[in-house]
Amino acid sequence: MGCSRRIISHLKARPFNSSLSSIRDESFLCQWYSRSSIASASGHRHHHGHNQPHEAQRPSNAGFSPKTASFFSFRPSARWIATEPAANHASTSTSAVNNAVLEIINPNDCIEVFVDGHSVKIPKGMTVFQACEAAGVDIPRFCYHPRLSIAGNCRMCLVEVEKTPKPVASCAMPAMPGMKIKTDTPMVLKAREGVMEFLLANHPLDCPICDQGGECDLQDQSMAFGSDRGRFIETKRTVLDKNLGPLVKTVMTRCIQCTRCVRFASEIAGIQDLGVLGRGGSEEIGTYVERAMASELSGNVIDICPVGALTSKPFAFTARSWELKSTESIDVSDAVGANITINSRGPEVMRILPRLSEEVNEEWLSDKARFCYDGLKRQRLSEPMIRNAKGRLEPASWYDALKAVASVIAKSSPDQMAGIAGKVADAESMMALKDLLNKLGCENLRCEGDGLRPTADIRSDYLMNTTIYGLEKADVCLLIGTQLRNEAPLVNTRLRKAVRNNGAKVASIGPAVDLTYKHTHLGTGPETLMQVAEGQHPFFSVLAKAKNPVVIVGAGIFERADREAVMAAVQKIVEKATVVKEDWNGFNVLLLNASHAAGLDLGLVPGVGVSTNWKESVKFLYLLGADDTPLNDIPEDTFVVYQGHHGDHSVYRANVILPGATYTEKEGTYANTEGRVQQTLPAVPIIGDARDDWKILRAVSEVAKVKLPYDTISALRARMLAISPNLFRVDELEPSSRWVPDSKPAAPGKVDASPFKSTIENFYMTNSICRASKIMAQCTAAFSGSKG
Asked: Labelling 507: which of 10, 452, 711, 772 has CA 20 to 30 A away?
């Protein structure tokens, strides 16, 4: 229908205080060195049954499953309310069926229809299917999906409309004023039974060995609407399976030709790899040319497939859906913060699925976020280690490891210390790292990958102010030094939606890439940027005339030596083209890492007196999960402490290793690239003798005689509240500042002639978890060079 949709959830933000707190009666270090006391303190996390949700776990989104996608979607003139209507609410309509509530935003733009004798007011332009859903009547469907175009080819959604001779496909029939719709007449039930019989005629009886078993639409709807017997006795047809790559497993004999995957590939992912071949009994879905499905969003076809034709290849034959425990969490593979559900069995993460979030990721998930889970159990650091005199790492006790760190701290001066927070560090651990080093007198703190950005005083200076959801309203967009498809695939889908629905014009300055939608490549470097800033480029007039202009700056800009001059040019464009208005802020910085926004909120930036050549004199370097920081240029006698969860790049240079927990094993706070604060929850127990990251830093502080003033996560978050109050407001967005970001220094200097480079060379290998993943290694081998 070409319109934006928004689902208003009735779920409130979960309280910020945590149930995973330390023992309050004993000293922190007493519990630390005693494994038994640690186990007793966190026993409620390890000993609950598989089917019992974690006590801190939020309730699931009502009515939504990634497999069935049974949720409601309407035009902008209406929105779904999942709670009882407020008293005397003039703009809400409540049906008599299932207490469904539809809030009419524009009462003058609605019509009245009758569903099973009940009056329902709906906005103009709705289909009969949506009118039935608004009335609370569940209509069976296979081909219909609210985020895809209407195909109308499964015929399972048949209903009876008065004065029509035959049942009609409700998903493709527009609702008309006064229309009388019947959904449970004998004719409708018989028609659905007949459609189901035809669908099952050639469907194999694979349910016992099908990975879709237990969450299959065909199973559920055949039980509810099908017959108890079949009349088909001929041989069933068979279809050759297709090779779509290392992620999607195909059993095309099970396919019912609903074409959801074809429409997703062409409309959402922006690739033309899938299509319908043949007609009639020879019709099948496949690739025009034998090749893998080269998309960073290919795994979503698994979720939208209503049968077992497309399933997860890594997950095949590993578990049944009813065996898994579900935990709501947040993805940390990039700065988008997609909402996910972690399915685990015992101590192992079995799979990761998307969770509905209209403001962030809708119901989609990138392949990296979905399939990197096997890296959570490979190359893990499970016990403290100390490098001996021969240069080899040896296992050690926590006491010895902490003592070794404290002894070096005592010998180092504050100006010889430094701390770096890694890509997936949570806000709690970054707060503890900042407090620890500040108590030692050190101001040399930074987030991995932020260059040498001088200040973080203005939030709108480093966030996506338009918001991810707001990008759909853009009519002109300028991308500067960013590969949106690789850096943030889910943000790229929003911009693609703006291009498809609103005809938005997109231009890019940087490496020439395939963004999956029509755009203009203006140039590769600062020279083109300066032409636009001076108004000498034709695109400047297009940007200046736009109603909702957007400028997106890639975080890789801040790694350049001429970043100040580049940002001065960007600010000139923002000012001259009026990108920031009274009711619109189109200036955006696209961050790359999950920890970056929260780190800048907490002030993890170098102090004023910190030298730009700090690596030459550093003697004590604390790496909080920082695996992508080059360490070749630090002195050989520098004492490096690595605190993290994987044996990655930095481990080879570390003198002491302190094993931490992954995001699936702890409760942590993250802020995404738009500044939205979200939290992860523990889905599996911590591996080996590892600990929560903030607890490790708290223990280091006590041994080093600079004890931090918090023993529980609640007390730590109270400290965070004092530093950055916005990190306390979970799932909320603060209104962005209307002012132009103050990024222009007094003397910006000249821009470098070198072109903007690609920030991400390999989409599947961006952090330590992905690099440890066998699935991501297979994707790298299969898709290397296939995406521009």
From this structure: 452
In this prediction, residue 66 carries a pLDDT of 45
Claim to verify: residue 511 and residue 442 sit in the same structural domain: no
How many domains is the chain partitioned into structurally? Answer: 4
| Domain's final residue, options 305, 323, 341 | 323
Looking at the fold, whether 444 and 482 belong to one and the same domain comes out as no
Report the alpha-carbon distance of residue 22 to residue 388 in Å, rounded: 33
User: Looking at the structure, do residues 617 and 718 belong to the same domain, yes or no?
Assistant: yes
Contacts of 531 (CB under 8 A, 6+ apart): 523, 537
Q: Which residues of the chain have pLDDT under 70?
A: 1-105, 450-456, 737-749, 785-788
User: Range of 424's domain?
Assistant: 385-450+596-723
Taking the CA atoms of residue 589, residue 742, residue 731 and residue 421 in that order, the dihedral angle to the nearest 10 degrees is: 70
What pLDDT sits at residue 783? 87
Q: Which of 589, 517, 570, 528 is nearest to 759 (CA)?
A: 589
Using one digit for the tens of pLDDT, what is the confidence trace for 278-316?
Answer: 888 889 999 888 888 989 999 999 999 999 999 999 999
pLDDT digits (tens, 9 = 90+) for 480-539: 999 999 999 999 999 999 999 999 999 999 999 999 999 999 999 899 999 999 999 999
Q: Which is it for strands 180-182 and 248-250: parallel, antiparallel or unpaired?
A: unpaired
pLDDT for the residue numbered 68? 39
The pLDDT of residue 345? 96
- Give the length of the chain: 788
By the 10 Å C-beta count (0-12 exposed, 13-18 middle, 19+ buried), 159 is classed as buried
The closest of 675, 666, 673 to 694, measured between CA atoms, is: 666
- Report helix, strand or coil for 62: coil
CATH number at residue 437: 3.40.50.740
Give the angle subtended at the CA of 503 by the CAs of 500 and 504, to the nearest 5°: 105
Which of the listed residues 323, 340, 363 is the one where a domain comes to its end?
Answer: 323
In a domain, 119, yes or no: no
Closest to 573 measured CA to CA, from 515, 613, 525, 533: 533
Reading the block at residue 734, the tokens are: 């603060």
CA-to-CA separations, 238 to 78, 204, 241, in angstroms, rounded = 44, 9, 9
Cα 79 to Cα 73, 241, 424, 497: the distances in Å are 8, 41, 35, 20
Q: Is residue 567 part of a domain?
A: yes
CB 595 within 8 A of CB 670: yes
Reading the block at residue 769, the tokens are 């978890």
777 by DSSP, 3-state: which?
helix
- Strands 639-644 and 656-659, bridge-based pairing: parallel
* Whether residue 771 sits in one domain with residue 746: no
10 Å Cβ neighbour count for 23? 16
Same domain (yes/no): 469, 583: yes
- Per-residue pLDDT reduced to its tens digit, 529-554: 999 999 999 999 999 999 999 999 99
At 78, list the tokens.
Answer: 């209406």
pTM: 0.85
Residues 717 and 767 in one domain: no
Residue 54 domain flag: no
Looking at the fold, whether 557 and 644 belong to one and the same domain comes out as no
535 domain-assigned: yes
Produce one character per residue of 306-332: b if its CB has 16 or more CB atoms within 10 Å, e if not.
Answer: bbbbbbbbbbeeeeebeebbbbbbbbb
Which pLDDT score, from 0 to 100, does residue 407 have? Answer: 95
Tens-digit pLDDT profile for residues 575-614: 999 999 988 999 999 999 999 999 999 998 887 777 777 8
In this structure, what CATH number is given to the domain that contains residue 555?
3.40.228.10
